[in-house]
Amino acid sequence: MRFFNNYKNEEIDISSNWILTYSDMVTIVLCFFIIFFVTSANENSILYEIKQNLNSKVNILESEKESLENDYESLTKENEKLQKQNITLAEELFKLKNIEEDVNSSNEEFIEYLRENDLLDDVYLIQNDDGLLIRFKDSVLFESAKADLIDEGYIILDKISDKIKDIDNKIRVEGFTDNRNINTERFPSNWELSAGRAISVVRYFVEKKGIDASRFSFTGWGEYMPIASNDTQDGRSKNRRIEITILK
User: Fold this and answer.
1) Longest C-alpha distance within the chain, in Å?
2) Model pLDDT for residues 17-69, shown as the tens digit of each residue
3) Could you tell me whether strands 171-176 and 241-247 are parallel, antiparallel, or unpaired per DSSP bridges?
4) Is 85 left (phi over 0), alpha (psi -120 to 50) or beta?
């Protein structure tokens, strides 16, 4: 199509060249959107991977949290069980909630026997970290320098065996002496005497009362674990002892 310029009488050519410019622009815009789309797709892929990683971490944390909660619950129950055992050993066996206060007023058979026979000062019940400790002066169970139980010792151990027969706790028996030397054919030293006395107690529980032998352990300490001074008669009397510990 051609027109003439009236002023200069020049011919102007109006052609379809603008279409080329337009198509270039459209192509550029299209390229832009293609690039934008590809970039967005890559970003979505990266975001998806991040999301998956975060979900995986969250799942791991939730699993660890659940495991920790289970461990905490288990430890709490175990702690409650141990605390209950710690509180109830004396109460379960001898009906004593507060040993120091109740031992002088209890009508429980074992405590009453000790009271009637003036043995409360020779037998002690002590709640400690290991369990319930029953401490006897040696004269309650044995004659001097001997490891054979006396009649009164049999009676006392018989009453205790009735208490421990029906529980599953382990039992530790320990023998102790004062620091005066002994040297006989049967007991060359205090070690043999203290161990022999502990063995006599264990054998009575196992052989006479039928308590499972696997529950027992024994030790002879000789004079090496005193609880009082060996410089006085009263101190030596306290050091000569048998201790039965009903373990937690």
Assistant:
1) 154
2) 667 677 777 777 777 777 766 666 665 666 667 767 777 777 787 777 788 88
3) antiparallel
4) alpha
* Residue 165 to residue 167: CA distance in whole angstroms: 6
Asked whether the CA dihedral 35, 39, 42, 48 is positive or negative, the reply is: negative
Based on the fold, state whether residues 8 and 113 are members of the same structural domain.
Answer: no
Domain final residue pick, 94, 117, 139: 94
Task: Please check whether residues 102 and 198 belong to one and the same domain.
Answer: yes
Tokens 């337009």 sit at which residue? 22
In tens, the pLDDT along 86-122 reads 556 777 777 767 666 666 666 677 777 777 777 777 8
Q: Domain check: are 111 and 155 in the same one?
A: yes
For residue 224, give every residue at least 6 positions away whose Cβ sits within 8 Å of its Cβ, in sequence order, or none.
none
pTM passes above 0.70: no
Is 116 within 8 Å of 109 (Cβ atoms)?
no
Residues 129 and 216 grouped into a single domain: yes
Together in a domain, 180 and 238? yes
Cα distance between residue 67 and residue 20, in whole Å: 69
| 87 lies in the same domain as 100 | no
CA distance 226 to 223: 6
Domain total of the chain: 2
